[in-house]
Amino acid sequence: MAWFKKQKSQEPEQPKRTKIAEGMWLKCNHCREIVYRKEVDRNNKVCPKCEYHFPISVMERITLLVDFGTFKEWDTDLAPQDPLSFQDTKSYKDRLKAQQEKTGRKDAMVIGEGIMNGRRVALCVFDFGFMGGSMGSVVGEKICRAIDRALEAKLPVILVTASGGARMQEGILSLMQMAKTSAAVAKLGEAKLPFICLLADPTFGGVTASVAMLGDVIIAEPKALIGFAGPRVIEQTIKQQLPDQFQRAEFLLEHGMIDMIVERKQLKETLSTLVAHF
Fold this sequence. Notes:
- This protein has helices spanning about 1-10, 35-40, 60-65, 90-105, 135-155, 170-190, 205-210, 230-240, 250-255, 265-275; strands at about 25, 35, 70-75, 110-115, 120-125, 155-165, 195-205, 215-220, 260.
- By secondary structure, it is of the alpha/beta class.
């Protein structure tokens, strides 16, 4: 018995591990620091260390922008088809079904009308949680329908983007939405109705190349990643190293690609002020 105790005492003591409840901490996508989730939530989903604005859900975005209880959604039943019978590792129909069950909506775009500080506005919001906010036929159609209703009611249109670009499963039909939505935005210009774009992290591909950059005023959230192709693809193409913070909102503002950067807590007031001026 004494020998057993002696041997046991010679074994190195294992350090006690602190138990951390799952989901209590987040890693910031920009500064890579570990931050307390509740602190981020209290700060409008903004990193307390570097002011990076975390992605938020569609309903969180709508609640942030319009007066409580005033949002009325349009065309909720508009659903995508599979015209190309597209299949990769999984069929497009199965992917759509899985995304619809996960998000509770038909596609990656929510449109509707709300009141922003007493003024009626038409709102179009990308849902990045639905297939990366990719723009397919339904997304393009919904943007155009929202613009048509805005023209009838003479409402300003606010577009919030968070997208990886065109939806490859719909091929050329997806790319056609770039021209379709651009033509619809041109009608707003002819009618002298304001079109304001809010670019959230990330906004990429065909969405950036078309409708997102057509706003009368283009706003971005701090440190949002905005571009067409990814930085790695660009570096491989031009064979040069890109500058620091390339494709971040601050870089784009410095080079004249966007008009202003607005913190999330000031977005509603800024947008309502712009709408009032227009």
